[in-house]
Amino acid sequence: MQNSVLGDLIGKKTKGLEFLIENEQYFSNHNFGDIPEYMLSQIECFENCSLLNAVWSTHTSCKNIIDDAEDFIFCIFTQPPFLLADAFSSKIESGINLKILFGKNSDIPDCNDLVDKLQLDKPKLDTGFEKRMCSYVAANVILSDSGACLMLPDNKDMTDIIMGIKGNDKPFLDWCNSFFEYKWNAGEQFARLR
């Protein structure tokens, strides 16, 4: 028996909704922040994702996304993750393309390991590293060719950097890349943080 187009579409959407239902408590306390509405209709990309309850306590999951990158690393941050400074720095040295986007609302200290190692406070631009600033950031993402982690804001619009959604499947990586490009294209290059 041949499946109908409608049946296939409903089946795909249902699999993404199952992830939302399985993690109902998380999604009842979080929102999609600055993710554009048209992307929310692509919820099926969450099908094989997992919810991380401690993104930074061991930072293993996010560090693996960076360590296993072979081509690129794209990130959106409300605050620089100093725990990943060494990983980012070594990837730039090995020739991996790194792009980091901050928002004007981002909490960027004058000095931490990430600011220092990537020289975010200097006008110097490395060929493998690009940085931009957009008007506002709520959802954070760490994306590479090996995986992605999405950190959503809570219902008080504070980005939850403790919990996150991790995935390695192509649909989720494509979705995170689309979100990154949407925000990146709205940003502007900057020479110095301040």
Record keyword descriptors for this entry.
single chain; 194 residues; alpha+beta; Endonuclease, Chain A; eight-stranded mixed beta sheet; 20% strand
In a few lines, what is going on in this structure?
The chain has 194 residues and is of the alpha+beta class. The protein is built from 7 helices and 8 strands; from the N terminus they run αααβαβαβαββββαβ. The radius of gyration is 17 Å and the shape is globular.
Structure write-up:
The chain has 194 residues and is α+β, with helices and mostly antiparallel strands. The chain has one domain (5-189): Endonuclease, Chain A (2-Layer Sandwich), CATH 3.30.870.10. The chain has seven helices and eight strands. It has an eight-stranded mixed β-sheet with strand order 1-7-6-5-2-3-4-8, sandwiched between helices. The radius of gyration is 17 Å and the shape is globular. 31% of the residues are buried.
Helix-strand blueprint:
Blueprint: H1 5-22, H2 24-28, H3 37-40, E1 50-52, H4 60-67, E2 72-77, H5 85-93, E3 97-103, H6 113-117, E4 129-134, E5 140-144, E6 147-151, E7 164-167, H7 170-186, E8 188-189
Parallel strand pairs: 2-3, 3-4
Antiparallel strand pairs: 1-7, 2-5, 4-8, 5-6, 6-7
